[in-house]
Amino acid sequence: MPDNPIGALSGVRVLDLSRVLGGPYCGQILGDHGADVLKIEPPQGDDTRAWGPPFAKDGVASYYMGLNRNKRVQHLDLSSEAGRDALMALLPQADVLIENFKTGTMERWGIGYDTLSKRFPSLVWCRVSGFGADGPLGALPGYDAAVQAMTGIMSINGEAEGGALRVGLPVVDMVTGLNATLGVLLALQERARSGKGQLVEAALYDSGLSLLHPHAANWFVDGKTPRRTGNAHPNIYPYDALRTGTDPIFLAVGNDRQFAVFCRCIGVPEMAQDARFADARSRSVNRATLKEALEAVLQAFDGRTLVDTLMAEGVPAAPVLPVDAALQHPHTLHREMVVEMEGGYRGIASPIKLSRTPASYRHAPLTPGDRFEHKD
Known about the structure:
Elements: E1 13-16, H1 22-32, E2 36-41, H2 62-65, E3 71-75, H3 81-90, E4 96-99, H4 105-108, H5 113-119, E5 124-129, H6 144-150, H7 171-194, E6 199-203, H8 204-210, H9 215-222, E7 239-242, E8 249-252, H10 256-265, H11 280-285, H12 287-298, H13 303-312, E9 317-319, H14 323-327, H15 330-334, E10 338-341, E11 345-348, E12 367-368
Parallel strand pairs: 1-2, 1-4, 2-3, 3-12, 4-5, 5-6
Antiparallel strand pairs: 7-8, 8-9, 10-11
Helix pairs in contact: 1-7, 7-8
């Protein structure tokens, strides 16, 4: 049994003033691990309440529901004096403030970081933005897809013969939320020593660039502009989706031993001795020839059965599943990766597993609140 079922961040109080994805995702992670999160929304609510269909409870979009559990919600108009007064009444108890207003908005309201950090020196202020506050693109608005385009992500995503393609989920927004969470935890750790808060910045642009491995590393070494390689890894092979006699499988062979075992499993052990494929460098250079040879052999195999065989032999392989099958997979259930809460809420659970202070799920999205639960 866990020592503390409330979570590792029990007693940490968070004001989540953010909207859309990056900031709310950070707030949900903190809330999952025990922080008391009070989400402050404008009177009309977070924009993502209307980002559907589908729509769930009270006509609120599923998009919003996936990012705002373990929070209680209060509506304040921070452009009004009354709304700002209500926020100021909450700040003395807050440990963390998360915001992603357009740069200069909170300053115009007289509640920017430079002003409030003097009044609340222990406050950890987390700012999520598109491009940061300054520089050639500073203070400009940023959205996930646009940042995917600008940071090179789209240029290396998609089939080799096709055009640049957006990654099919908001990966930049989500990684920015993770970076924001890491920054908050680092700042709280440092505050335990110094007693002082600080500004944590997480920008979509920076986070997008940080995702470019190994393409950036390749460019730094050889100066060649990375190209799209479809499902294939740019550096190693076979690390690709391959056709079989039935369903395609994804094969992730990372070393010579795995390749030899793979060749044995599909009945062509001699292929691992072929000079064109005998080591990682050769397999990568000769990938087109290798793919053609492998798919010719794999036509005799059932994809799902072959995956089971390969995994049992220590060769990383997987079926290519749709979302519904992944969410209903027996291992998904075993790992407790689906949360069900009162009122019909279902969502993806926290992937962070702590043995003594695990995540907990206390508030479904849209739970009302006007003050913190934990008091000094």
